Amino acid sequence: MFALYDHAINLDREINLVWSYRQSRSMHKTEPFQAKFDFTSILYFLVRYLGEAVLIFTNVVFNATSSSLET
User: Fold this and answer.
1) Which of 14, 27, 42, 46 is the most buried (most CB within 10 A)?
2) Where does the DUF6533 domain lie (predicted)?
3) CA distance 65 to 6
4) What single-letter DSSP state applies at residue 34?
């Protein structure tokens, strides 16, 4: 639960810091629709969101099996 809460309160910072647009080197302006997808962004995505998916999946599976065992 704390991981989901952390994602919710830090989503705006994550968008600004990790998924922001690249700066143009010559004009110092943002180029639209050109998000930075380098190794660190991909690794961040995998660690942050794949971990969430595993937590949710595990919770659903264990709750489903425990409720079927009780009946």
Assistant:
1) 14
2) 2-51
3) 28
4) E
- Tell me the Cα Rg of the chain: 18
Read off the pLDDT band of 19 (50, 70, 90).
confident
CA-CA distance, 40 to 50, in Å (whole number)? Answer: 15
The pTM of the whole model exceeds 0.85: no
CA separation, residue 53 to residues 6, 31, 41, 47, 59 (Å): 15, 32, 18, 10, 10
Domain ranges of the chain: 1-69
For the chain, how many residues are written?
71
Cα three-residue angle 32-36-41, rounded to 5 degrees: 150
- Name the DSSP letter for residue 20: P
Residues 6+ away with beta carbon under 8 Å from 21: 30, 31, 32, 34, 35, 36
